[in-house]
Design brief:
With about 325 residues, the protein is of the alpha/beta class. The protein has 2 domains: about 120 residues, no CATH class; about 180 residues, Rossmann fold, CATH 3.40.50.150. The chain has 9 helices and 12 strands. The longest helix has 21 residues.
Length: about 325
């Protein structure tokens, strides 16, 4: 059974888009990039040689799953916000000792249903408690957890934490702390600072796949909320903002133009952009300090063989 079904659709998308495009620096929520087609394009991005994060994190999970699972402990409840198809949790589950349950949190009901069915087949003794929700909102865990007094551990791979501004990241980590409680754990993937050229190629690949991913957002708005973006009049741009320590993705207007979104008109100057994604990069000490602000204590770290990516394990004080 899937609890708390929520969808980002219709009026919710329209409200967020109107608010974002009304800012001085026009912006759109990163989560809107991941409609069905956007998610499919992102899967292609993950296979590109230029896009190292998925490959590097997978190496870490494959190499260190026993060690990570040992730190997590036995008879724990694993909670995964933004679980998607559950690809990465599959590296940990076989190594966990008597897990008390797994709570995947995913906004797409179809993906959640499919993943839950697959996990029931692969791990028949695992208690899977799917939750259909937007993890950016307040999360109410499944009711059956009320009677289970087990250690809770949040699994948050994929460097998704990098999409949060730093204060928003602290607020999100505080929310995780409230969910897991004192002594609870956090396994989290973080992209490390590195050569800016390597970062640029990962977010603006020469094959144009990342550009398609970004431009698909405009197609989605045309389709879902009666916008009239002409994709030929926009281009994808990505760069590393060294001062802020983040990669930024933008959709840049090639010309001066008026865009209608539902019944609202927005004016774009030539060269004006819509900021669609930020991906903050950290070194180990910076990220540990960030988590300390949310009362998380660092217990261990694991890096890939090229030192591109890091998986951290924290416990909440």
């Amino acid at each position: 059974m899937i609890e708390n079904v929520e969808h980002v659709a219709g009026t919710s998308v329209l409200r967020e888009v109107l608010a974002g495009l009304s800012k001085c620096q026009k912006s759109l929520p990163t989560k809107l990039l991941y409609d069905k087609r956007g998610s499919e394009i992102f899967e292609k991005i993950c296979l590109l040689k230029e896009y190292y994060p998925t490959r590097a994190e997978t190496e870490i999970l494959k190499t260190h799953s026993n060690e990570i699972s040992s730190l997590i402990g036995k008879e724990v409840i694993i909670i995964e916000p933004g679980s998607g198809a559950g690809d990465k949790i599959r590296y940990l589950l076989p190594h966990l000792v008597d897990p008390a349950g797994y709570v995947p949190i995913e906004i797409s009901r179809d993906i959640l249903l499919r993943m839950t069915e697959e996990l029931h087949e692969e791990f028949p003794t695992l208690d899977v408690m799917p939750l259909c929700a937007d993890f950016n909102q307040e999360i109410n865990l499944p009711h059956q957890l009320d009677t289970k007094n087990y250690k809770k551990v949040v699994f948050f791979p994929g460097s998704t934490i990098g999409n949060f501004g730093q204060q928003d990241a602290v607020n999100f980590l505080k929310k995780i702390g409230r969910i897991i409680g004192s002594g609870g754990g956090l396994v989290i993937g973080v992209d490390l600072k590195k050569n800016p050229e390597l970062l640029k190629n990962a977010y603006d690949d020469p094959h144009g796949v990342t550009a398609d991913f970004n431009m698909n957002l405009l197609e989605r708005l045309n389709r879902e909320i009666s916008a009239n973006f002409n994709l030929d009049n926009f281009k994808h741009e990505a760069f590393y903002n060294e001062d802020l320590g983040r990669v930024e993705m933008h959709l840049v207007s090639k010309i001066s133009q008026l865009i209608r979104v539902n019944e609202t008109i927005f004016r774009f100057k030539e060269g004006e952009s819509i900021h669609t994604e930020s991906s903050y990069k950290y070194n180990v000490d910076e990220f540990a300090e960030l988590c300390a602000k949310a009362k998380f204590s660092l217990k261990s770290t694991w890096k890939d063989s090229q030192n591109l990516f890091c998986v951290f394990y924290f416990e909440w004080e």
